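Entry type: protein chain
Record version: 2
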Amino acid sequence: MHKLRSTGDVFFEEESIRGASPSLLLGQIRNTLPYLTDTSRYRSFPHLALILDLQSHGNVIPSLNHSEYFRLCLASHMATVASYVPTDVDNQIRFRLWHPSVSQPSLKAMVETVLEILDWDYRVLSSRWIVSPSGQILAGHHGEWLGVAVGAYGATWRQLPSLAQAIKNKILTEIQRQLKVYDECKKAREGIKQLKASALIAHNLGDFDRVLEMWNLSQDQDFKNAVGATGFEARRMNKAYMSDENHRHIGLRAARALRKSEDLLLPIGPFFDEWGSRLARHPDLSFEEVADVVRHLIDAWERLSPGNVGYARALAGVIESFPGGQNELSRYLPVKVERNLKAGLLHGLCSVPRHRFEEQWNGFALKFI
């Protein structure tokens, strides 16, 4: 369990660069992840223990020194980044909280946290991850780590060069590990997994590149060389097939029923059939709530079509698994929504059997050059 320290060592400069208050962050987490109240299940995860400890204080939140506040922001980001409404602390943890005014003791404590979180298991907080043929986990959260680690490096390379070099070595090793996952999937000819790896790597390297630019580190030769041919290929594959399917899913934010369970976190698109099936028969959702999510899926698809197929695959999963099938589902839908499911392009996309759809996409990867 994370222990809160006394706050006598808080520096005014450090307090002045903070963003959202701890109570506001905790409120945002409760809004998007209400199921974290099950403390017996989630307290064993280091990135959630601090959140649960602070929530246990009710409305009287203890004061946090700078490194503790940084840890809360980082925990908040990692807890919610794969949810439907993430907390908005990206710039805090990547740049602003690493301000030159931060004392060296606080800076060292922050770096320790960054190095520690690389080993956290994020799978309870996300469905956007894969396991390689050799058992390596690749997740979108690993890109979030890269972004924060670049911030740690940028803040220390002048003040604490030996510590900065250790961070840099970790970053370079992690990038190579992620690229090996893509190569493993490619060599094993697991096409769908290769597509998913390409989407994850493109996201993760995108985070990496953006924070390098924030810190004026884009010309660092070690970082430039790290991505190499494999990273370039993964990015090309993502752009060709996956980028239209993996965005911020803003159209689903209003479907509040999706926030009821970690089971309903959205996976890597466009492979949403299983997620749609899970949604259709989820024990925490009423038929009316499932139908409300269907309505939001169709609305979101209409704004993205014709390029997007993921939401159609989610609908295919819902139709296949909803008790009583599409006819029963139609009882809970407005006439216009029901009509979209029965005719036109959306109907055609939903009608393709899952095995045929996945065979087609598996072939895209295997034929990709």
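Comment: Strands lie at 129-131, 137-139.
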